[in-house]
Each structure stands twice: as structure tokens, then as C-alpha cells.
Amino acid sequence: MGRYIQATCRLCRREGGKLFLKGEKCFTEKCPVARRPYPPGQHGKLQARISEYRIRLREKQKARRIYGLVERQFANYFERASARKGATGEKLLELLERRLDNVIYRLGFATSRQAARQMVRNGGVLVNARKVNIPSFEVKIGDMVGISPKIVTLAKAALEKFPDRQTPSWLSLAGEVEGKVLSIPRRDEIDIAIEENLIVEYYSR
């Protein structure tokens, strides 16, 4: 399956809530989820039959879309999480949060994960003073994540748009456009409305 290239806001409507995929637009009256709070398509307003499978599938799809992954990528993360000690669902979210594009977003240097991914791919992100252009790069404790001079303006603009955004406790701003990974993210430090146990049940069926 290729990467999704259609209207992003349709994904939020399909999942029944804001996934914050469009950055600043998600906080305005122009957000389609607020204007049309029902699934997209001709039959969007019809009452769909709710089954246990559907509930688990939608939760998995929601998480996958929040982090901007295709199905195979997400399944690979689940396999890695399953092989680790501890609660599989929590390990899954931990791995997803440690992606470089997500860290850039969490530090406030981009208005959305999609924008952060583009910054990484274009070579505008540094990890320990070395350019890294792989969005899925997994950060470690002690890593310094910064923005290269060529896109500092973009990062500063993102910070100015959301001055009240709280940096997660497992990260810290170490400079104007630089941050540090303080620890491995715990579940209570990940402010994402996902019931990870449903994702585990989906893949365990």
C-alpha cells in the first residue's frame, strides 16, 4: 500500500475526532471535523454496525494515522514491541514516540508530524550535530536533536504559532532550536488518546 496522498482531514473525520494532522488548521473554525462531525463519503451520516472487530480496527487505524505510517511499518513496530519485555501496547507507543519526526513535532519545531517528517527528509534535522534524514530514526537517551541553519526560520515560526505548547517531560529544550532526550517516554508522559490494549487485541485475534 502506498502512502496516503488524499485530503488529510478525511482521516480525522473517519476516526471521529481530531488527530491533529494539519497543524494550525486543527485549532481553527476551518477544521472539517468541527464542521462535519461524521465520516466522509455518501453514507457517512448512516449508523454503522459496531462490532468488536470494528472497534479494534478503528483504534489501530487511528494510531497509525496519527504517526503517519503505512500498514507494514505499523505492523513492524508492533512485532518489535511484542518481542520486548513489558506491556506490548506501552512498548508500541514508546517506539512510535522515539521516532525522529515525532520528536521534532513534540519539541515544537514543526506544526504537525507531517511537517516534521518533511523537515527530516530534506536534511534539516541534526542529531548530535550530524545530519539525519530518516524520519524513523530512533532517538536514544542523551541525544541532542537540533535544526540546521537552513530551516531555522521554519522552526522558529512553528514555535511562535504555538507558544503555549508543553514539551513532554521526557524531552527538554536545550537551546533556541535544539532539544535533548532525557529519558525513554513512559505511558503517562504520552498525551495521546489511544487505547493501546485494543491494538494489541487486534493483532492477537
Tally of distinct domains: 2
The stretches of 5 or more residues where confidence is low (pLDDT under 50) are none
Q: What's the CATH C level of the largest domain?
A: Mainly Alpha
Q: Tell me the distance between the termini.
A: 22 Å
Largest sheet: 5 strands, antiparallel
Q: What global shape is seen? A: globular
Strand segment count: 5
Radius of gyration: 17 Å
Q: Which strand-content bin applies to the residues?
A: 5-15%
Assembly type: single chain
Characterise this structure:
The chain is α+β, with helices and mostly antiparallel strands. It has 2 domains: about 10-95 and about 190-205, Ribosomal Protein S4 Delta 41, Chain A, domain 1; about 100-185, Roll (Structural Genomics Hypothetical 15.5 Kd Protein In mrcA-pckA Intergenic Region, Chain A). The chain contains 9 helices and 5 strands. It has helices at about 10-15, 30-35, 50-65, 70-80, 90-95, 100-105, 115-120, 150-160, 195-205; strands spanning about 125, 130, 145, 170-175, 180. The protein has a 5-stranded antiparallel β-sheet. The mean pLDDT is about 85.
Tags for this model:
5 strands, alpha+beta, Structural Genomics Hypothetical 15.5 Kd Protein In mrcA-pckA Intergenic Region, Chain A, 205 residues, Ribosomal Protein S4 Delta 41, Chain A, domain 1, 2 domains
